[in-house]
Specification:
Rossmann fold; alpha/beta; 124 residues; 2 helices
Amino acid sequence: MTPLSVLMVSDVSPLAGAGGGERVLWEQARGLARRGHAVTVLARAPDGTPAGRHEREGVRVLLFAAGRRTRAGFLRAAVFAARRAAGAVLAESAIDVRARPAGRAGAAGALHIPVPGAARISLA
């Protein structure tokens, strides 16, 4: 099997572990990494958690911050922050697959992060 570079985009953080979406995202990312794939999770930092880079069990997690003053402001901030973070990821390395996790974490599909040349899949 040829190892792939996988980008997972989510509106929840796999580092939070607080809910079902977070756990599903983490289990999928960790499972892919255990199979030898290079997995990067691009996720919104939970409230009170600073944005930044983390490495856990072979999964690279990049958290971006989005302020929550108003609903519209939060949505706008989340979309722009995710796109900036995705641009940085794409500048660093080629991505073979953009995966959209199942469950609530899949809501990030609305962010529509284009990854040129990458296959798009939904993990169910």
